[in-house]
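Box 3.1 A note on notation
Throughout this textbook, protein chains are presented in two layers. The first layer is the amino acid sequence; the second is a token string describing backbone geometry. Keep the layers aligned when reading.
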Amino acid sequence: MKNRIALRLLAYFAVALAAFALVSGLLFGTLFTRQTVEAKKADMLRRATALAETLSGVLDENGADRMAGGQGTGAGNGYGAYVRMLSLVETDVWVLDEQLEFLSAGHMQGRALTYSDLPADAETLVQAVFQGQTPFSEGFSELVGAPTLTVGAPIYRGDTVAGALLLHDAVSGIQDAAAAGVRVLLYSGAAALGVAVLLAVLLSYAFANPLNRMKATALRLADGEYAAKTGVARRDEIGKLAQAIDELSVRLLLSRQADERQEQLRRDFLANVSHELRTPVTVLRGSLEALCDGVVREPERVDEYHRRMLWETVNLQRLVNDLMDLARLQNTDFPIERGPLNLADMLADALYGAGQLARAKEIALRREFSPEPIPFEGDYGRLRQMFLIVLDNAVKFSPEKSAVTVTLTPEGATVQDEGPGIPPEELPLIFDRFHKAHTEGNGQGSGLGLAIARQIALRHGVDITVTSEPGHGATFHFSWPAAGGGGQA
């Protein structure tokens, strides 16, 4: 099922809303009934107390000893008459003495009431009233024939309780009102639940839709479609998750492109290595076959073949050594020896090594060094190799009787020649493996020298760049961290 999470969220919302409506209805019914009953009790207590106080005012302290029927003298006749009148006006008001004898004409449903008609807890209620209390009771409900609440109030003669006034009031109306209120609440809750369910449906699908889109995007990424995007733009946790998936797609795409470039470089590298090895191997094989088959017998030609084979062997050895150096330097796990050194001494040593080739072409090696020592932390041999590669290239491409100028300062170094320069289209490629400039005098070499020099520079934190204008030579720039610190190991 596609929108299973939406249906599940909808079910959660519906259950939560139904539980809320049920609990709200129960609490409302209970609290409404309790509040209404408490208000009813307060009103009944107020009425009963007012009637009892009125009867207490009518009853004189010196009234008759026997009050029933209004017999007696003086105030007794007034009190009895008031009680008889009260029983006619207020049919829900009874007046009893301590022996549960009716002082008023207590009657119910058209018949007179007697002691035997009173409920079991009537005596307890009346005794509590004669103790000065105002108790409530629901025990008269069966006698009245409906749910009834009864309150008792004492009638005083002076400081003595002379009678008990019982006031009855039906509570069925309260229960009916509470039931009606609960019904209204349930109807309102049902309507609200319907609206809430509709909103829950919309919200559930609004919540599930971006999740489904992210799922579809994840499946497309799993199938290798790294350009896939979720298209979800939100500022909540779901939006952050979608943003993370989009970022993952970008990184996977870049990783695949990098892998493709690396694979292409590997293929080019193998092709270049094969091409570079094929020439000396072919020459060696052809020369050996000619010698072994006796095609070449003259001593002079045999010596020429031997010298050619030696030269090709030297070139082959140089190519293998360069490949091994480049492989080691590109491996970050391959350590390089580090130690304190003076860049001026190291660069002077590299100039001395390049002097033999420079003397053969009568090229002057000029140096412009800073007078103060320049300390550095690095591999002396590798740094000398880096500068020697650049110096050999500068001498090789410079015309005879020209000059190569080397400058050294605490901020960096430069090697400037007076050769034909480097064409602009080849400047970005000169540090690539097996790249050879298509210029005169560049027929020899493996094309790995500058690639090795760049790897040495990277391992020491040195930045190496080149600038050139055709016809005005080329200048290699070296810059290193302040205070002559070395780079990564």
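The CA atoms of residues 244 and 405 lie 53 Å apart. The longest strand covers residues 160-170.
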